[in-house]
Specification:
The complex is a heterodimer. Chain A is about 35% helix and about 25% strand. By secondary structure, chain A is of the alpha+beta class. Chain A folds into three domains: about 190 residues, 2-Layer Sandwich (Heat Shock Protein 90), CATH 3.30.565; about 120 residues, Ribosomal Protein S5, domain 2; about 220 residues, Ribosomal Protein S8, Chain: A, domain 1. In chain A, the strands form five sheets. An eight-stranded mixed beta sheet of chain A has the order 5-4-3-6-2-1-7-8, covered by helices on one side. In chain A, a hairpin with a 2-residue loop joins strand 4 and strand 5. In chain A, helix 2 runs parallel beside helix 6, helix 11 packs across helix 14 and helix 13 runs antiparallel to helix 14. Chain A starts with a helix and ends in a 5-residue tail after the last helix. The model of chain B has no long low-confidence stretch (mean pLDDT about 90). In chain B, about 20% of the residues lie in helices and about 45% in strands. In chain B, strands 14-11-12-13-25-24-23-18-21-20-19-22 form a twelve-stranded antiparallel beta sheet. Chain B has an eight-stranded antiparallel beta sheet with strand order 6-2-3-4-17-16-15-10. A five-stranded antiparallel beta sheet of chain B has the order 5-1-7-8-9. Chain B contains six helices and 26 strands. Chain B has three domains: about 110 residues, Roll (DNA Polymerase III, Chain A, domain 2); about 120 residues, DNA Polymerase III, Chain A, domain 2; about 120 residues, DNA Polymerase III, subunit A, domain 2 (DNA Polymerase III, Chain A, domain 2, Roll), CATH 3.10.150. Chain B is α+β, with helices and mostly antiparallel strands. In chain B, a hairpin with a 3-residue loop joins strand 20 and strand 21. Chain B is elongated and about 85 Å long. Classes of the chains: A alpha+beta, B alpha+beta. The interface between A and B is medium-sized, with 26 and 31 residues. Strand 19 of chain A pairs antiparallel with strand 26 of chain B, so a sheet runs across the interface.
Chain lengths: ~550, ~375
């Protein structure tokens, strides 16, 4: 048998990886305690001090000792509670684990009338215990982390790195709980501050900037069993990494590949390769539909019905995106200006006031295009058109790609795919790699209307193909599909097919279009729900508004 | 070189050869027109190295000679001249040719005639003679079925088969097949099959104009080139090498339903459908319903474009057989209805997924097969 000392240190290793883990555990405790104001402070990268103070319900004097016993928790009592856990913490591991690897000071009170408790622990044992007055709430200060664990101490990164992790944690909770006021002091400087006015957009403004916050649109989705809410940015604003993507389950910050995939799926075809969407989403679902008890840090989750969650997130975002607008259109998007004070103050920021005050108009269907009047064609590549709000340049190839892509996707949900038969089959010879791919995706190709028969080694006969290809070179399309689809799993194959078909079927740059053809193209683009990007994510439309034109011509300064 | 001719004639000659000028060529001289003054006429030649057109214009030649001049330059200049006598002069061995017409003058820098790609002589080989009228009709009925994309070069050509007293032209682009048979003015021995680029035949058709004299076709021994000799022009063309698909096997031997309808009515209803089909991959659905005791049979044409709308039209037809359904690319349907000269056509259908056949009534020299589109009904 391992001694209790060894057991607690092993367990502590799972919970306390770095100062940020302590921040996380303590902030969660504060939230569970019903606090609406949480102040966090770190110094020495968190190794010297992590201090979290809240105005929550506090710990009754007689229970303070208990809090530091392993698996002592006031949050759940039985196995049934575990299935329906509503609080962030419940394992009863956090405080004892922290106490095992650092010196801990606790000061807590359940109300003004009752005297508070002060506790000082070192090496997991209570050194000092007395009554001390304190306003309602709890303050826990963790000092000298890993002082007796040199091996662990060695693995801590530079102060700035550790502080970065802590800031990330606090940011996520601020995003998850816009109605709580958070402040974070890093090395005595204010790094983050949120007002707790309940407006997620204000929190985003403080974290990511007012401009982005203004451009984001609300996400709202509710079904019988779950709801999705949050903010999402239009596809024109994307990031290389995933730092601007936060997902929460019942306000618990989680990193879920499933949710990430659902987000990507919603933005499919709208972003360039390597770019990631910006979205802050919270899913509310009954606790018994999700298992957060996969890992002590609770950052991983398991869903009872993954498909349901995936669809909900995708649909929620798609709905929101249909309402987004292009970046140049930001003045139409309102920002509910919070209160008296700027929501967040970022330490580096020189301005100490809020982001600029908001414009008045609400976010409306700005994602669609207004009716456009075709003016002409430029370099046989771009269509120039006039809209009510300025001059539009439309990339004819990208625009047509979008139109064809939409048609293909629409066909799939509506009618069966229409197929053009061939009087004489076309023989197609494949490379070994293409041949291998074909065998795996043959069913998918059949689904979209290709009829391909084996005809000798690596030779196939094409007997029919999707009607939407029209007069484009079908053999080229087949080769392209087989090349592009080599590294794709089953998911999204249809969309890729559609993208590739669209690319081939779309009118090329450099082709002269008659006025009637241009009008036809623009009319079809106007009808699209995502007219502003092609399926590859390139823009289809560039707009110069009147103000810009006036500026360029010096009519306005 | 010293020669004079009427502006009208020169302009017509330049227009005749103009389509054969190379558009984008690495060989600059191929963008020129060769002008040769010989034996009381002016010979004009243009080539894009695949096809060469030669045209003769009546002229008064005082001094023979030859030069090539930029095609666009000379054509546009001559077209803008008044209809008077044009004098063309160039000192022997010179490169600059002078055009004079009334009060107008131009000097053009040309390229030496010796640099012009030689037009192949086709004298020996298989010769055939056809009536201009029949050839005009044959070309107009098949060339639209030829493929336009170059991925399968054989299909960009027209399969031309000479056999005994008969000439057969066939074109196919994978979706449709058009076959036209016509008599040769003189029977030939054996059978010869070549593939002529559709572009060449379209050019032959254009140059035929109102010509009434027969056309002489000569194919060289190697079956690599052919000559079409018209009354005042000659076209020499490269032939497409390869084997044309055996098309006779795709022409259905029988049918389950046959509907005879008026061409102009059919065209009108199909054109109406094409308006909506434009947004639906050009698909029109044809429903052939047999007539009853007192009512005639009919063909119903519908087109439906998702989120846009749909339309339906029908026309009376003499229906033989059971009810039938078939969907076509309306462009193909309109193409064939547009070239049929007869007043009625028969539409022959077996199943919705097997080829549909259109034949004019009153002649058996033309058959047009269209592969249907597979749709939900």
């Amino acid at each position: 048998m391992l001694s209790p000392d060894v057991v607690s240190r092993i367990a502590a290793g799972e919970v306390v990886e770095r100062p940020a883990s302590i921040v996380k555990e303590l902030v969660e405790n504060s939230i569970d305690a019903g606090a609406d104001r949480i102040d966090i402070e770190c110094s020495g990268g968190g190794a010297a001090l992590v201090c979290v103070a809240d105005n929550g319900q506090g710990i009754p004097a007689e229970q303070v000792d208990m809090a530091f016993l392993r698996h002592a928790t006031s949050k759940i009592a039985s196995l049934d509670d575990l299935v329906n856990v509503h609080s962030l913490g419940f394992r009863g591991e956090a405080l004892p684990s922290i106490a095992a690897v650092a010196d801990v000071e606790v000061s807590t009170s359940i109300g003004d009338a009752v005297p508070g408790t002060y506790l000082y622990m070192r090496g997991g044992t209570i050194q000092h215990h007395e009554s001390r007055p304190r306003a309602r709430g709890t303050t826990i200060a963790v000092r000298r982390l890993f002082r007796h664990f040199p091996a662990r101490l060695k693995f801590l990164k530079a102060e700035s790195t550790e502080n970065g992790h802590s800031a990330q944690v606090v940011s996520q909770y601020a995003l998850a709980y816009p109605s709580l006021a958070f402040s974070l002091l890093l090395e005595d400087r204010v790094a983050l501050r949120s007002t707790g006015n309940g407006d997620l957009r204000d929190v985003v403004a403080g974290l990511f900037g007012a401009e982005l916050a203004r451009a984001m649109v609300p996400v709202e989705y509710a079904s019988e069993r779950l709801s999705v809410a949050g903010l999402a940015a239009p596809a024109s604003l994307s990031r290389a990494g995933r730092s601007h993507q936060s997902t929460f389950i019942n306000h618990r910050w989680v990193r879920s590949p499933l949710l990430q995939r659902a987000i990507d799926e919603a933005y499919r075809g709208m972003l360039h390769e390597g770019r990631n969407p910006i979205a802050i989403l919270n899913l509310d679902l009954p606790p018994n539909r999700v298992d957060v008890n996969v890992h002590p840090s609770k950052a991983q989750v398991k869903f009872a019905d993954e498909q349901e969650v995936f669809r909900a997130v995708r649909e929620a975002l798609k709905g929101a995106l249909a309402r987004t607008s292009v970046a140049t259109d930001s003045r139409h998007i309102s920002l509910s200006s919070g209160g008296t004070q700027g929501a967040w103050l970022v330490a580096e920021a020189t301005q100490d006031s809020a982001y600029p005050p908001a414009a008045a108009e609400p976010t409306t269907g700005a994602g669609s295009l207004p009716p456009l009047r075709v003016l002409g064609q430029i370099r046989n590549t771009y269509v120039a058109a006039e809209g009510p709000d300025g001059l539009y340049l439309i990339d004819q190839h990208a625009a047509h790609e979008r139109v064809v892509y939409d048609r293909l996707i629409g066909r799939r949900t509506g009618h069966e795919i229409e197929v053009q038969g061939l009087l004489e089959p076309i023989a197609i010879e494949l490379t070994p790699a293409e041949d291998a791919t074909l065998s795996t995706i043959m069913d998918r190709l059949t689904e979209v209307g290709f009829a391909i028969e084996a005809f000798g080694s690596r030779t196939y006969l094409l007997r029919s193909f999707p009607a939407v290809i029209g007069e484009a070179d079908v053999v080229d399309i087949v080769h392209d599909l087989l090349r592009e689809l080599t590294d794709v799993n089953q998911r999204g194959v249809y969309e890729r097919l559609a993208t590739s078909i669209a690319c081939h079927a779309a009118v090329r740059a450099g082709k002269h279009l008659a006025t009637e053809e241009m009008r036809h193209l623009i009319r079809q683009l106007e009808a699209s729900t995502q007219p502003r990007t092609c399926p590859h994510g390139r823009p289809t439309v560039v707009r110069f508004d009147e103000a810009q034109l006036e500026k360029m011509f010096g009519r306005r300064t | 070189m010293r020669v004079s001719c009427l502006q009208e004639n020169l302009s017509r000659g330049l227009g005749a050869v103009g389509r054969s000028v190379a558009v984008r060529s690495t060989l600059p001289v191929a963008q020129n027109i060769l002008i040769v003054a010989e034996e009381s006429r002016l010979k004009l030649v243009a080539t894009n190295l695949e096809m060469a057109t030669t045209c003769w214009v009546g002229a008064k030649v005082e001094e023979e000679g030859s030069i090539t001049v930029p095609a666009r330059l000379v054509t546009e200049f001559v077209n803008s001249l008044p209809n008077e006598l044009v004098n063309i002069e160039m000192p022997a061995g010179g490169r600059t040719v002078q055009f004079t017409c009334g009060r107008f003058q131009a000097r053009m820098n040309g390229i030496d005639a010796d640099d012009f790609p030689p037009v192949p002589e086709i004298a020996d080989g298989i010769g055939a003679e056809v009536e201009a009228d029949g050839l005009r009709e044959a070309i107009s009925r098949v060339t639209m079925a030829a493929a336009t994309d170059e991925s399968r070069p054989v299909l960009t050509g027209i399969n031309v088969e000479f056999e005994g007293e008969r000439l057969t032209l066939a074109a196919a682009d994978g979706f449709r097949l058009a076959v036209y048979k016509m008599p040769l003015a003189k029977a030939i021995e054996g059978k010869t099959t070549v593939i002529v680029p559709a572009r060449t035949l379209n050019e032959v058709h254009r140059l035929l104009g109102e010509q009434e004299e027969p056309v002489y076709i000569t194919v060289n021994e190697q079956r690599s080139q052919a000559l079409f000799r018209l009354s005042n022009a000659e076209i020499v063309t490269q032939l497409v090498q390869g084997t044309f698909p055996n098309y006779s096997q795709v022409i259905p031997k029988s049918y389950d339903t046959r509907a005879v309808a008026d061409v102009s009515e059919f065209t009108r209803v199909a054109r109406m459908g094409s308006v909506f089909a434009r947004d639906a991959s050009n698909i029109v659905r044809l429903l052939v319903t047999p007539g009853g005791e007192m009512k005639p049979g009919k063909i119903t044409v519908t087109a439906q474009a998702e989120e846009i709308g749909d339309n339906t039209g029908d026309l009376d037809a003499l229906v033989d057989g059971k009810e039938a359904k078939i969907a076509f690319n309306v462009k193909y349907l309109l193409d064939v209805l547009g070239v049929v000269k007869q007043s009625q056509v028969a539409l022959e259908v077996t199943t919705p997924s097997s080829p549909g056949v259109i034949r004019p009534i009153g002649t058996d020299n033309y058959v047009h097969v269209i592969m249907p589109m597979f749709v939900q009904w």
